[in-house]
Specification:
183 residues; four-stranded mixed sheet; globular
């Protein structure tokens, strides 16, 4: 009987894993890079980790996951880089351009009969610049949380620029998320 105990335990653990919701199994491994700081991994991996962390929050609440949009990402990348380079932190650029102006310029709204959009921005340094910390901060802010959990949003653009719009110690990053849905 003792010889079968390890096999029984392995089968029991496998069955338990199958009984867990898909998100509960995938989330920890899929978002492993979310704890890394800027410069420790590539920007592409930071973007993917941010998307993963955002989608975990949505999945936990029964919402559809967001899909990365090239056009929204273009608008988000440009704005993150502009804020970090020109030392400002705002949804509007110094020239007065809004995030709607930016996503329109990037081509996201072309051909849309109706649409909805939103934007989250953040910056941090050290461990606060990691995707997981940034998403946690957004989830603790009612307006940012509302954008992340808005069921109508289907697409997201994620822009991350190294550096901060203010003087910061250590490695820092500026984040922009542009959310959208269109028909």
């Amino acid at each position: 009987m003792r010889a079968h105990r390890p096999i029984f335990l392995a089968v029991a653990l496998a069955l338990l894993a199958l009984a867990l919701p898909a998100g509960a199994q995938a989330a920890p491994q899929a978002c492993q890079s979310a704890a890394y700081k800027p410069g420790e991994i590539s920007k592409r991996k930071l973007v993917r980790a941010t998307l993963c962390a955002l989608n975990v929050e949505r999945r936990q609440r029964g919402l559809r996951k967001l899909k990365l949009s090239k056009r929204l990402s273009k608008a988000a990348r440009r704005h993150a880089a502009d804020m970090a380079r020109r030392n400002y932190f705002s949804h509007s650029s110094p020239s007065g351009a809004s995030f709607i102006d930016r996503i329109r310029r990037a081509g996201y709204l072309l051909g849309a009969r109706s649409w909805t959009a939103g934007e989250n921005i953040a910056w941090g340094s050290g461990r606060r610049a990691a995707p997981r910390a940034t998403v946690r901060a957004w989830m603790n802010s009612p307006g940012h949380r509302a954008n992340i959990l808005k069921g109508r949003f289907r697409h997201i653009g994620i822009g991350i620029a190294y550096g901060a719009p203010a003087r910061a110690g250590g490695r820092s990053a500026t984040y922009v998320n542009d959310f959208g849905s269109k028909r």
